[in-house]
Specification:
The protein is mainly α. The chain has three helices and no strands. Helix 2 runs antiparallel to helix 3. It is rod-shaped and about 120 Å long.
Length: 109
């Protein structure tokens, strides 16, 4: 009896597999595999494109950051220079007003 069960199990399993296989359309399976393959290729290409873009963006950001820092420093230096110049002009005006009020009125117009 045990020998009979062992020989029936592979036959029963094969029948089950055959039945399931007959339910599946081979053409649909091939279409699904083809679509999956295309999606995989598209995904790989998208990842490569994003990696390239990220590398470019990082390099561009690094370069622009350096430029931004140098421009910011230059603007701060220019502001200090202008503040110094306006301070000197105010002192000159005060001196002119104190020592020669008539000339100051002509300049202050």
């Amino acid at each position: 009896q045990r020998i009979m069960e062992q020989t029936e199990e592979p036959v029963t399993a094969k029948l089950f597999v055959d039945e399931v296989s007959s339910l599946v359309n081979e053409e649909h399976i091939q279409q699904i595999l083809s679509i999956q393959s295309q999606i995989s290729e598209d995904l790989v290409q998208s990842i490569e494109t994003l990696d390239t873009f990220n590398t470019f963006s990082k390099e561009t950001f690094d370069n622009l950051s350096k430029d931004y820092e140098s421009h910011t420093k230059m603007m701060k230096d220019m502001k200090k220079d202008l503040e110094y110049i306006y301070k000197k002009i105010r002192k000159m005006k005060q001196s002119l007003k104190q020592y020669n009020p008539e000339a100051y009125q002509q300049v202050d117009r």
